[in-house]
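Homework help board

Subject: predicted structure for assignment chain

Our instructor gave us this sequence and asked us to write out the predicted structure in token form, then describe one feature. I got the tokens but I'm not sure how to describe them. Can anyone check?
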Amino acid sequence: MSVSAEPVSELVDLLTLERLEDNLFRGQSRDIGTKYVFGGQVLGQALSAAQTTVDNGRHVHSLHAYFLRAGDIDHPIVYDVDRTRDGGSFSVRRVTAIQHGKVIFFCAASFQEQESGAEHQAKMPQVPQPEEIAPSPAVAPQVLAKLPTKVQRWLQRGGPFEFRHVHPRDELQPPRRPPFHQIWLRLNEAVGDAPELHQALLAYASDFHLLGTATFPHGISYYTPNVQMASLDHALWFHRPFRVDEWMLYSLDSPSAQDSRGLARGQFFSRDGRLIASTAQEGLIRVVHDRASAAAVPAKD
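My token output:
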């Protein structure tokens, strides 16, 4: 399948921030068909901002974030980095994302020099290889025409990542099924060897399909007209070196949903079975009986 490299270069540009001051950065926003700024964009940009203030060969090993307000797609986001600590082996940065004078997101990221030590990992699930899984079929034109404009744009977009779902689900007419999901994914074009860029790109990609796993037992999805969904927090741990332009398995599960919130967890494995990153997210999953209210009110109000 021939894939344009343009979405990849656009994403790399999106994660390359404008430096306004020593610890102050500005990032642009991109409309990919979601109602508000995609959470992965803010995660990736915040990590990029933090990375720019860390030197001495230290790389991020963990990131913990909270989404406070929905981001405005039509305006840039300013990232304020606090150089919280530079110790003998670790550095910590706190990043605040600001838009229209209000904090919409903040996170803490920890960086470490590479060290040797005790090592073990979870085993990768046994699943078909990506070449054995057919790409997701395009939505039929007659079905697409009945959907809202933003949903149409999301479903038609040629994104920077390719996804191969081990057990595909019809998101427009979702069945009820256990909250487990496995997806092969990779960036559609090679992007060089800088580990910082691969980490920022993985932070971006980690927000795809994560919270959606918590909807599986309930027969709903992001596209269900009377459902509001939004990320509330996000944690990401980097374990081993990796490349996002090579196939990775994203293995997801959701242990709980309650009080209009769902918890989802994920593990990224390289093709040769190395556990390269882990993630967790709690998000809002609110079923609103009035469809007009569901569409008009920001999910976090």
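Reply (TA_rk): Your tokens look well-formed. For the description, you could write something like this. The helical segments are 6-14, 39-52, 141-144, 149-156, 195-205, 291-296. That's the kind of observation they're looking for.
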